[in-house]
Design brief:
The complex is a heterodimer of chains A (491) and B (771). With 491 residues, chain A is α+β, with helices and mostly antiparallel strands. Among the domains of chain A are: 72 residues, [2Fe-2S]-binding domain (DNA polymerase, domain 1, Orthogonal Bundle); 54 residues, Uridine Diphospho-n-acetylenolpyruvylglucosamine Reductase, domain 2; 109 residues, Uridine Diphospho-n-acetylenolpyruvylglucosamine Reductase, domain 3, CATH 3.30.465; 106 residues, Enolase-like, domain 1. Chain A has 19 helices and 20 strands. Chain B is globular. Chain B has 771 residues and is an alpha+beta fold. The chains are: A alpha+beta (491), B alpha+beta (771). At the A-B interface, helix 2, helix 3, helix 4, helix 5 and helix 19 of A face helix 1, helix 3, strand 27, helix 17 and helix 19 of B. The structure holds flavin-adenine dinucleotide and FE2/S2 (inorganic) cluster (2 copies). Flavin-adenine dinucleotide (FAD) binds next to strand 8, helix 13 and strand 16 of chain A.
Chain lengths: 491, 771
């Protein structure tokens, strides 16, 4: 058992034993260190002005992950080196900084530290050698700039990341690895006391025990939801159990017929694994939050929060995923869709936690499509989200699994439509359109600031039609304005 | 990589016309450029959090702040009772209280503020207030206000001829309605101020404001002290866009009141959600138009009613709605016209300045009318635009100003050529025929934007320049830096004047103690007026130095020149600092103020006639989009911009303004939607629900050029203002979306309203299908 959270700042070890568990990393930097280069633009993970980079060891390799310091707890930096905008220049500006200067990439400059840090993370990405405009746009999708219109920022970042030379971080990589390795002690962390603590159990069994003892504690994966309870609702959260150190929780196991994702697998990592099931899943996760959110948010959190507009649940439900839960020493596995009981109410008992989700791969004859609709393409919450899996036999629908988000109080299947589709030929457009009308029997969505009920119904039907036409052979170049499929995966 | 245009007539000047980086760029990227919240806090600094109304309209029955006062770390709770002077923050009309004390007039209206040891403690305490308000019926939308005849100010019209009669006898006529949404500024740095009390009633305020003199003014009245006791300083803002012209005042005033009451330094910075709920936005409008035209689409008469949601108080609405009227013609000659306006009072936050200041909304209406003409006559909308441009003998605006500097015919011709508009329109039409679900659209739209404050007395500026004995220059002027590059442009002007390299000119924070009685940095006029004032100040010192150098070297003063950090007497060169030191010893004054008042402007609001603008800035844009007619999703595929900045002071900065303004305008017209619920609560009060563009929304194919032009008027280095005009280039995106929808059912009008969200697009698609 370790009583303090530990991370590095500029090579200096910071150890924190007594602190308010809900202190954000941004407040730590700005208020405690008085390092004010990192900005607060929204305090809810949406603008990227607070971006810092966590450098940590992942399977023995150094990785650079951009995160939103405004909704990341200081305790979540355990085991990392925290790199902020003030830290990256040497005698001269860092290449990503200099390129921004050279390209007129800052106007008011308030967003700039965040872009610098997202660019810095991109600079250090393993695949940086093949940096492209699309990768830059993806890397900065979580950063808002209201002044420049982005063009100079994209140009600058692309130029800097096209041929990244060694910087002081690459040069001290060995030393940094050594330092960071020392922090990886595999011990349970418990900073605080019985009334107020930040805990980071290192094993499933310690987690299970601790959570049984404190079932009222708040579990956090990436804290990208809970962070807003702290910064916006100003809730007191005295007991926090962070899942980021639980051994095996961040593991992705690709088996012959399925992929098993540990509860603390980050969206960024899940994205790659799931894209291999179907490219639409890759695109869906590419659009999930910004890079900073994807580098923190977990798949377990996305499911456990029970949000009716979470993106992964409908996709995974359509694929037929199952959920593993654990309480104390007891495990159980349920179909994912059964987890969602009603609005914000899940089948999760006191002291029980999500352990993993298992996603079946597509088998022969199975096709999949999913679509996210939002006001803005990147980094927006879905107005609605639709996913469909069909099992085809001789171009006839043998089975349909359709799930939607944003259409009800929970992610929910469209059972009437599923039944109506059964037996239809995928090429029979008239029959399809007729069957899809029954979506109105499956859903009675709400109107809110994202979309009206009428729009949701209309668009839901349109998405299914689109999926059917694509499956029947229409290339996505003709059906999608963006997010087109790499493969022509048709029946 | 993007290259700057090579067509700038760059010969003589050394520093102006160069695309030098923003003066703070190196500090922006390093995180060392300080904004208000980053400044070292004086010991014992306290923090504020405002508490607002939870209803849109009503009377305060009971204000129970006991729990707030007892909350941990709370030092004081401020209400209207704590104000020694006027409880007012309204700049033009004193109709807006700092704290509501009796009547509440919008959801979120500040009623009290907590002053506590920390920001978090203040915010937590603010939640504990128990306020009873007897709710009254609230007027929320433009339509509500029209129905209730809820007016903030009198209607105001420009009437030229009998539009109704002329429309009635025109060969063709169209009537239509266009709803134009508002826009949240979403400056990345929220509202912030730090007030430090001094002795004898003095107050020093660091405020993120575009209008330090107004903050000074309001604070002085609030605290009942003389203006001279209040100093307001602004080094930089993290964006403003008009949102900190009048609406930064309230927060600075709150901090100053707290500092006055507690005798400690007090800081306020608004949480983003509070900022969005409590500060005004771009006015949303409803435009009802009727237009009469001939068979070529030439306009005979235009009648438009521009009805604006002004919110609960006057704020800057008179100027905003006036400017909408001044731009109701955009680039087109209207032989007969009726430009009417309604300034509606609603129980919503007071809408305010936003880049374009009403101009964009005025233009939107006529651009839609033009498209409607083209649809009806089955003409290319560009031809209708060309047929209606101002030209010889057709050059008088509805407010009686003659247009003399129009370059749009050439500018549009050039853009039509470089963008390949005509060919692409044909290709798109053919492509659309073969595409069932996706439809593309293209539009080329012009902008003509009037430069000057339409309130004449604001068209003045002051500057203060010192030269120190080491040859370094201290530059100060009344303009504020919000990211637009004003400071570097003016430093370029001053460096040029002295023949110095730019590094020698030290840019300093705007300060009401150095340059008094300043105008807001607004109306795009920042570099026009402050640049001239600073040049005048520098020229005075330079004149003295030249005279001294002439005497010193025994040559005629005409033989003295300043360049390359040196002073030349014929061919003899002396380092600048040597001449300065010698001049100092000879007791030559090395400091000067400078002043400038824009010439040749006068507008008589009563007679509705005159010359409100010194000149016009022009531009045009060609945008292409693709829409998904199943879902209403849209993507901008390509954009070509050609814009007139006269002869640019700094093409790097100007291109940044053009691109940034365009993207901001595109956001306004597409993804940025302000949604109020029926109780008048803004439900899109955070970036999670209010969506400004991201990098993905900017087309990869984005071509921006400066139009080769000069300013006919004698402006600073013959440049033109650039802050606002490019925003309106984004109207081309909206028109292109309408064009794409129009392809579904050619000839039918497209009832697309702004913003064109997926839902709005789909609604319009469905409407043209069933018509
Ligand atoms: C800017 C921004 C953008 C976003 N964009 C998207 C988006 O595009 N799509 C989308 O779906 N969501 C989005 N979200 C929401 C959020 O990021 C996701 O829901 C995310 O997956 C939550 O994961 P987390 O690990 O951060 O959850 P946390 O905040 O750590 O936890 C969320 C909830 O789940 C509980 N929990 C977490 N892990 C477990 C577990 N293993 N067992 C039991 N309970 C657990 C927590 O106690 C809490 O109640 C966005 C959020 C932000 C701030
Ligand atoms: S402050 Fe906006 S994402 Fe953190
Ligand atoms: S430079 Fe101002 S927000 Fe990006």
């Amino acid at each position: 058992m370790r009583k303090a959270v530990r991370f590095f700042r500029n090579g200096r070890l910071i150890e924190r034993a007594e602190f308010s568990p809900s202190t954000t990393l941004l407040d730590y930097l700005r208020l405690e260190e008085r390092a004010t280069g990192t900005k607060e633009g929204c305090a809810e993970g949406d603008c990227g002005a607070c971006t810092v980079v966590l450098r940590r060891l992942l399977e023995g390799k150094l990785v650079y992950e951009p995160v939103n310091a405004c909704i990341l707890l200081a305790g979540q930096a355990d085991g990392c080196e925290v790199i902020a905008v003030e830290d990256i220049a040497g005698e001269q500006l860092h290449p990503v900084q200099q390129a921004l200067v050279d390209h007129h990439g800052s106007q008011c400059g308030f967003c700039t530290p965040g872009f610098v840090m997202a660019g810095f993370a991109l600079y250090h990405r393993a695949e940086q050698k093949s940096c492209s405009r699309a990768k830059v746009v993806e890397a900065i999708s979580g950063n808002l700039c209201r002044c420049t219109g982005y063009r100079p920022i994209v140009d600058a970042t692309l130029q800097a990341c096209a041929k990244p030379a060694a910087d002081k971080f690459t040069r001290d990589a060995k030393e940094a690895s050594r330092r960071l390795k020392k922090l990886a002690d595999g011990k349970d962390v418990f900073a605080g006391n019985e009334k107020q603590f930040f805990a980071a159990p290192a094993s499933v069994s310690s987690l299970a025990k601790l959570y049984l003892k404190h079932p009222e504690a708040t579990l956090i994966g990436g804290n990208t939801d809970v962070g807003l309870w702290i910064t916006k609702e100003l809730r007191e959260i005295p007991k926090i159990i962070w899942l980021g150190r639980v051994k095996g929780f961040d593991k992705i196991e690709s088996r012959a017929k399925e992929v098993r994702l540990g509860a603390a697998v980050k969206i960024e990592a899940a994205s790659e694994a799931l894209a291999r099931i179907d490219s639409d899943l890759g695109e869906l996760f590419r659009r999930f939050g910004g890079w900073q959110v994807r580098s923190a948010a977990t798949i377990g959190g996305n499911i456990a929060n029970g949000s009716p507009i979470g993106d992964s649940p409908p996709a995974l439900i359509a694929l037929g995923a199952t959920l593993e839960l654990q309480r104390g020493a007891k495990n159980r596995t349920i179909p994912l869709e059964k987890f969602f009981l009603e609005y914000r109410k899940q089948d999760r008992r006191r002291g029980e936690f999500v352990r993993a989700v298992t996603v079946p791969k597509l088998t022969k004859g199975e096709v999949f499509r999913c679509f996210k609709i939002s006001k803005r393409y990147d980094q927006d919450i879905s107005s609605l989200f639709g996913a469909i899996k069909l099992r085809l036999k001789n171009r006839k629908i043998a089975e349909a699994r359709i799930a939607f988000g944003g259409m009800a109080g929970t992610p929910k299947r469209a059972k009437t439509v599923e039944a109506k589709l059964k037996g239809l030929s995928v090429g029979d457009r008239a029959a399809m359109e007729k069957a899809l009308v029954s979506i109105e029997q499956d859903f009675a969505p709400l109107s809110d600031m994202r979309a009206s009920a009428e729009y949701r119904l209309k668009a839901a039907r349109a998405l299914l039609l689109k999926a059917m036409l694509e499956i029947a052979g229409k290339p996505s170049q003709l059906t999608r304005a963006f997010g087109r499929r790499a493969d022509a995966h048709a029946a | 990589m993007h290259t700057l245009p090579d067509r700038l007539e760059d010969q003589a000047p050394h520093t102006v016309r160069k695309p030098v980086a923003h003066d703070s760029a190196a500090r922006h990227v390093a995180g060392s450029a300080a904004y208000v919240d980053d400044m070292p806090e004086p010991a014992g600094t306290l923090h504020l959090a405002p508490g607002g109304s939870s209803v849109a309209a009503g009377k305060i029955r009971k204000l129970d702040l006991e729990a707030v006062k007892r909350a941990p770390d709370v030092i004081a709770v401020l209400t209207a009772k704590d104000i020694p002077g006027h409880n007012n923050i309204g700049a033009i009309v004193p109709d807006e209280p700092l704290f509501a004390s009796d009547e509440v007039r919008f959801h979120g209206q500040p009623i009290f503020a907590v002053v506590a040891e920390s920001y978090l403690a203040a915010r937590k305490a603010a939640k504990l207030a128990k306020i009873q308000i007897a709710a009254a019926r609230a007027v929320i939308t433009v339509d509500d206000a029209l129905a209730a005849k809820s007016k903030l100010l009198d209607d105001y019209d420009f009437i030229n001829g009998d539009a109704a009669a002329e429309i009635a006898v025109s060969a063709h006529r169209i009537k239509g309605v266009l709803r134009i949404g508002g826009q949240e500024h979403f400056y990345l740095e929220g509202q912030a101020a730090l007030a430090i009390p001094g002795e004898n009633g003095e107050m020093h305020i660091h405020s993120s404001t575009q209008h330090p003199s107004e903050v000074q003014h309001i604070v002085a009245h609030l605290l009942q002290v003389k203006l001279a006791a209040v100093t307001v300083e602004v080094r930089r803002m993290g964006g403003a866009f008009g949102g900190k012209e009048s609406q930064a005042t309230q927060w600075a005033a709150m901090a100053a009141l707290a500092a006055h009451v507690t005798k400690r330094a007090c800081k306020i910075r608004l949480d983003r959600d509070d900022d969005m709920a409590m500060t005004g936005k771009r006015h949303d409008f409803r435009a009802d138009y009727e237009i009469g035209f001939d068979g070529e689409g030439r306009i005979r008469a235009y009648d438009v009613q521009l009805a604006a949601r002004c919110g609960h108080s006057v704020d800057l609405s008179p100027g905003v709605v006036d400017r909408a009227m001044f731009h109701a013609d955009n680039a087109y000659y209207l032989p007969v016209s009726a430009i009417r306006s309604k300034r509606l009072k609603t129980n919503t936050v007071s809408n305010t300045a936003f880049r374009g200041f009403g101009g964009p909304q005025g233009m939107m209406a006529i651009e839609r009318a033009i498209d409607a003409i083209a649809w009806k006559l089955k003409l290319d909308p560009l031809d209708v635009r060309l047929n209606n441009l101002y030209g010889a003998g057709r050059d008088t605006t509805p407010y009686g100003m003659q247009i003399k500097d129009n370059v749009l015919p050439e500018l549009i011709a050039e853009l039509a050529r470089t963008s390949g508009y005509r060919t692409r329109r044909k290709e798109i039409a053919a492509w659309n025929k073969g595409s069932e679900f996706l439809k593309r659209g293209i539009a080329l739209t012009p902008v003509k934007f009037g430069i000057s404050f339409t309130v004449p007395h604001l068209n003045q500026a002051g500057a203060l320049v010192h030269v120190y004995r080491d040859g370094s220059v201290h530059l100060n002027h009344g303009g504020t830096e919000m990211g637009q590059g004003l400071f570097v442009k003016i430093a370029q002007v001053v460096a040029e004047e002295f023949g110095l390299s730019l590094e020698r000119v030290k840019i300093t924070a705007t300060n009401t103690g150095k340059v008094p009685n300043t105008s807001p940095t607004a109306a795009s006029a920042g570099s026009d007026i402050n640049g001239m004032a600073a040049r005048n100040a520098a020229a005075t010192i330079r004149g003295r130095l030249a005279e001294f150098a002439a005497k010193h070297c025994g040559v005629a003063v005409e033989r003295i020149s300043f360049r390359d950090d040196k002073v030349f007497a014929d061919n003899r060169a002396m380092p600048f600092e040597e001449i300065v030191e010698a001049a100092y010893r000879a007791r030559v004054p090395l400091s000067s103020t400078g002043f400038y008042a824009t010439p040749n402007i006068d507008f008589d609001r009563e007679r509705k006639n005159g010359r409100p603008f010194f000149y016009f800035a022009y531009g045009a844009a060609c945008s292409e989009v693709v829409i998904d007619t199943l879902t209403g999703e849209m993507k901008i595929e390509r954009v070509d911009l050609l814009h007139d900045v006269g002869r640019s002071l700094n093409p790097g900065i100007d291109i940044g303004q053009i691109e940034g303004g365009f993207v901001q305008g595109a956001g306004w017209l597409t993804s940025e939607e302000l949604v109020y619920d029926k109780n008048g609560r803004l439900t899109t009060h955070a970036p999670s629900t209010y969506k400004i563009p991201t990098a993905f929304d900017v087309p990869e194919d984005f071509r921006v050029s400066l139009f080769k032009n000069s300013n006919r008027e004698d402006t600073i280095w013959r440049s033109k203002a650039v802050g606002e005009p490019p925003l309106m280039l984004a109207i081309s995106v909206f028109a292109a979306i309408a064009d794409a929808i129009h392809s579904i059912a050619p000839g039918k009008p497209v009832p697309l309203d702004a913003p064109a969200t997926p839902e709005a697009i789909l609604r319009a698609v469905d409407a043209v299908r069933v018509q």
